[in-house]
Amino acid sequence: MLTAKNKKFYLDGKEFKIQSGAFHYFRALPEYWEDILTKIKAAGLNTVETYTAWNLHEPKKGVYDFSGMLDLEKYIKTAEKVGLKVILRPGPYICAEWENGGLPSWLLKKEYNVRLRCKTEPYMTFFKNWLHVLFEKVRPLLDVNGGPVIALAVENEYGSFGDDFEYLKEVEKIYRDEKMDCLYFAADGDKDYHLSTGRSGNHIVQGIDFGGVGDKETMTIVDNYDPESPYITLEYWAGNFTNWGFKECTHIPDHVVKETVNNFVDMGSSFNIYMLFGGTNFGFTSGAQGNLTWMEKEYNPVATSYDYDAAITEWGGYTQRYFDIKEAMERDHGKADIPVPPSPVLQNIGTVRLTESAELFENLHIGKSYKSVTVESMEEFDQRSGYILYSKTFNYDPAEHALKLVGVHDRAYVFVNNKLIGILMRGEDERILEFERDFKAGDTIDILVENMGRICYGEDTYFGDRKGITGGVFLTHRKGGALQNPGKVLFNWDVTCLEMDNPEKVVFNEGLTENSPAFYRGTFKAENKNSCFVHFDNLTKGVVYVNGFNLGRYWERGPLEALYIPGAILKEENEIVIFEAEKIKGEPTVEINNICGIPNHHKEIIV
Length: 607
Known about the structure:
Layout lengths: L1 E4 L2 E4 L2 E2 L3 E4 L10 H10 L4 E5 L2 H4 L14 H11 L2 E5 L33 H16 L10 E5 L11 H13 L5 E7 L2 H4 L9 E7 L4 H4 L12 E6 L16 H14 L2 E5 L13 E2 L10 E2 L18 H14 L16 E10 L8 E5 L14 E7 L8 E8 L1 E6 L2 E7 L6 E3 L9 E7 L4 E3 L2 H4 L4 E9 L1 E2 L2 E2 L4 E2 L3 E6 L10 E2 L7 E8 L6 E4 L5 E6 L2 E7 L6 E4 L7 E8 L8 E5 L14
Helix pairs in contact: 1-3, 8-9
């Protein structure tokens, strides 16, 4: 069992330095787990760290999923197979640039009236029920039971969020009542602001999270809170994530990472490199940041790639920092006992033509339909992700020509009589849209709203970031540029929830429609199961599916220029389906090749 005393860790009675790399199982296909874990081991590290994603494992209240990419037991046993110990971070909140910070969307239904991350009901009951299910699976894999799991993190970066010490004590109590007998960590930032409220007491080892160059002064700040706690960095940010709309993908100089890892070695400090392998926010799993001082806007959605400028690339290749880390580990304890696996080979497929199409408004059968007196958010209809459509036909002459949308979360496409009259982006656009004339009886309004990711860091991690239209739709008009009334509330809507998880139900026609939003389909051959990238130069904004697997969102805003296609999902004959919300630009084609879509990515080192 891992223990801590006299500022050192001991594993089964012998001094032990945790030298770990982060790799989230839910950001890679299971077919690649052993390969990535082997590469972590070959770098000379002895541990792998991962969060658990509550929102994936309990997508609907009381319905649990541990299959496929969510087979946590298989992941932990694979780590053990290659010779790695495991640090598990159950949350419940994980941040991780992940949708809703890992908290399930169903928590946000109005009937529950939940306040998140504090000792209130029913949040604590929901959380406790989830942990009971999770810990039933993990308990046999603890090191005291002969498994590789040596430590658990209690909550996550709570010092950045709140000061409910009774909540932290209750979370710890749940862990202990569930007989999760191992070492407990708290992870928080490296300033007094974070560390002052991040854990429930000195019986939990205090770790720190930071980026840039870390030195003795950085790591010894924990002495002010627990003089006996060993030095451990739970997250050393050796890279960073990418947001849509930023000028470029984040790039951390290699020398910064190299210097800090060598400082860890010189100090004898334990560490976890976040991320050693970043992976991908497949589907609709990426989160967003709120209105933060270092962000450009009040709402900042995270891009599909979570490559993170990491030592191991999104497709399993190597960058220079991998070998810098390996060199530091060899200086510390000699060469790793396994060789570095060869680099993956990517494939170049070429141009793929889209030959069929299907208009969204003619395929609403793929969604679930409801009648609603009021405009409500996705959560009220038990919808997790995708798009939601609000439709209304006037049965009277409104004598007004403008619509005011309150609470657009996150991107709204507004149509009148099937004609697009405007797009509203959360936090960027004025929320008033004007029609060319006064509305009349028989006019139909359709408002299609995309959930671009629930906020994972910001004040919404207390209130909850509901999706769709969270306020209301109002009828009004302008005069001299100013609104003439506060707006008449529009009631009685037809609502269609489009989770976009069933492209196989779309009815396609030969040829291409000029109407958006629409689905487009093409086919291509693959000679092998090597990975590749689909480039979206001729597309604007939407989602890509290959053989029914949702690769994630694309957006011309960049900086990401392509989506990663894992070779494991490819067949000899393949189908690509694209949901384009706005327009195809130029030729109806995409390029699938071996060029990654991260403009300033580190040069890959081929092994």
